[in-house]
Design goal:
Length: 214
């Protein structure tokens, strides 16, 4: 496990566990957070209702950072430890819904971003192919209409290179730029389906979440 730098806003610990299911042994990856109040997990500047609020930026970065280190095929469980006074049935249900909803929303946003990237890539590739076709035709015309010489050969080669260079970026977008977005979207989808458990603060655990107060 690779340690993360200290954060003034949230503390996480990560462990691996196994949970027996009806189909056998299902491997779980558990992320644990310790907070003083529920409001510290969310953006206090967000005016939307509790269950629709965005997560606090640092809390999100920590959860995503740890989740990125987990095996891709394991089920994620997020356990949030907080004082007993903060743990109520209603708040527990709302908190789980809010966390899952937020990561689902982020996954949908990344899907939209991926579609836009691919759209730009396809459009750019069409333009690049038109430029390549024009360059190839121009090079052939120059070869037919002009006398042979170093300048003519240089001009022909320059046009061919220009045509291929025009396609470099579109090909890079379609073949490579989409994969980081896809990986992050899949990670958010896993977090959107994670089991959220709210637990009273374990004895002896020190709260290190002194960041923004609700």
């Amino acid at each position: 496990m690779v340690p993360f730098p200290e954060s003034p806003s949230v503390s996480l610990s990560l462990c691996r566990a196994r949970d027996r299911t009806e189909t056998g042994m299902a491997e779980l990856s558990i992320i644990e957070l310790q907070v003083e109040k529920i409001g510290q997990l969310f953006d206090t500047l967000d005016p939307t209702p509790f269950r629709e609020r965005d997560l606090d930026r640092e809390a999100e970065e920590y959860i995503v950072g740890w989740a990125r280190e987990l095996p891709r095929k394991t089920t994620i469980r997020i356990i949030i430890h907080m004082p007993v006074s903060e743990v109520t049935k209603e708040q527990t249900q709302l908190l789980g819904q809010a966390v899952n909803r937020y990561f689902g929303y982020r996954a949908d946003m990344l899907t939209t971003e991926l579609k836009e990237v691919l759209r730009v890539g396809r459009y750019s590739l069409c333009v690049g192919l038109v430029v390549l076709t024009a360059c190839v035709i121009s090079a052939r015309l120059i070869a037919q209409l002009s006398s042979s010489g170093e300048f003519t050969a240089l001009l022909r080669e320059g046009l061919i290179i220009l045509g291929w260079v025009a396609n470099w970026r579109p090909i890079e977008i379609i073949l490579y730029d989409r994969w980081p977005i896809i990986r992050r979207r899949n990670l958010y989808r896993r977090l959107a389906g994670a089991e959220i458990i709210v637990s009273p603060r374990r004895p002896g655990l020190r709260n290190v979440f002194p960041g923004r107060r609700p």
